[in-house]
Amino acid sequence: xxxxxxxxxxxxxxxxxxxxxxxxxxxxxxxxxxxxxxxxxxxxxxxxxxxxxxxxxxxxxxxxxxxxxxxxxxxxxxxxxxxxxxxxxxxxxxxxxxxxxxxxxxxxxxxxxxxxxxxxxxxxxxxxxxxxxxxxxxxxxxxxxxxxxxxxxxxxxxxxxxxxxxxxxxxxxxxxxxxxxxxxxxxxxxxxxxxxxxxxxxxxxxxxxxxxxxxxxxxxxxxxxxxxxxxxxxxxxxxxxxxxxxxxxxxxxxxxxxxxxxxxxxxxxxxxxxxxxxxxxxxxxxxxxxxxxxxxxxxxxxxxxxxxxxxxxxxxxxxxxxxxxxxxxxxxxxxxxxxxxxxxxxxxxxxxxxxxxxxxxxxxxxxxxxxxxxxxxxxxxxxxxxxxxxxxxxxxxxxxxxxxxxxxxxxxxxxxxxxxxxxxxxxxxxxxxxxxxxxxxxxxxxxxxxxxxxxxxxxxxxxxxxxxxxxxxxxxxxxxxxxxxxxxxxxxxxxxxxxxxxxxxxxxxxxxxxxxxxxxxxxxxxxxxxxxxxxxxxxxxxxxxxxxxxxxxxxxxxxxxxxxxxxxxxxxxxxxxxxxxxxxx
Length: 585
Prior knowledge:
Layout: E1 12-13, H1 35-42, H2 60-66, H3 68-123, H4 130-141, E2 148-153, E3 163-164, H5 175-183, E4 189-195, E5 203-213, E6 220-228, H6 230-280, H7 295-351, H8 358-389, E7 397-400, H9 401-411, H10 413-419, E8 423-426, E9 432-435, H11 437-454, E10 460-466, E11 470-477, H12 511-521, E12 525-531, E13 535-543, E14 570-571
Parallel strand pairs: 1-8, 8-10
Antiparallel strand pairs: 2-3, 2-6, 4-5, 5-6, 7-9, 10-11, 11-13, 12-13, 12-14
């Protein structure tokens, strides 16, 4: 209990002088209107299929989540891309290996022929002119455009001069290849590397090296043949571009095929979804178009049969509901005349009850009480019939909800004293709204009366709050409460949480049902929360002006002093769902 709260048994401790507290956070947006309006509002942009190029990028995640076709096409494209990349890599590797191996074998054959010719020529050269002969041989062995020759003396050569052809640079020889040639000159060594030129850019190439020995002097030279692979590189580039183009076209083709195939399946499903939405909106004549005799056609036939059966059942229930409403309305009206006669006789007997013996006097008092309850039941039935017929109307006026709460509490003062139930008020500031005060008073009379009846003598707390758009009243008791599965049933007609429980206020069982209809008629909502042994909490939220749509409530969805949460707040503020059809807006 808050400090400074004055509590008296059967009396009211008013907090109107207390400091205002900040309103709690607003709840998630709510909607109101007809059942058709709720159904149509629930179908957002993403329910309507749109091409990807016509949607904003921020909506693409929604397309991925909601569109089977988008997921299938995207998955097909991704898997096709991965497969084509793998296949392209394997094919490109094999083509590259084949082209390079072919060039390597032809280059080695060329090098062996040139080495054999060089050996014969050098062995026949004069000892004194061997250096000049080496230079001539190097130049003569060169084939411009096919390969260049580089002659490098080893440690066992008398000359340090490096002989080369063209503009090839001696640093084109990788060090591992040079070491292998020097260590073992009996065979050919080769490697792939970049061939550097002094006045032109480097090109990829094949370097083949070996040793030659001059018998007349005993000198050894390392000789390298540098084969540029420019032509092979161009060939591989052409093959790579061809593979890339073919792969791209194949991906586009697979995407188109996947889109067409999934479209054949998804289109009937989307049609079924749209027809189901229209059926839910009340357009019971909608049917799917049947084409062919395949599985999808049989699905459409089954769907249409289901829709026809539902239409017959709903029409039958509508007719039954109409007859029931007509019966209740007719019986209620027909009972008013005999009830008036009985009331007049009962009033006459009640006024002269002191002249009767005790047993007859008690019978007259019971008759009077039951007649009062019967009149209340008849009035409630008439009010329910007006709601069902859509004939209920509002008489709006600007009122302070605190005044209505105080009037209701004054009317229940005798019951409060008999129950010994203290009341705490948390109404620090005026809470004004444009409402029908008669209907709001009836709602609060039902809520407060139920709280008193089920409070078991424990305190009742009534709170009011408002914001720019809404005003709210909450009634909290700490009585028996109700189970989670009963949360949605408390607003049902003639429902009681415990049928064996003695009713002390003479209710009809229609109070909360009428209260819910009154709240809906205002465009408001009535929420219920309960927990066994922890009491109940009812929150009435109303728009402060008729042109305002509720987006939340200034009061919390459940009581702050709740010891445990058994169930979530039950939102029963949606409009009454009638079974009659309507046109889509």
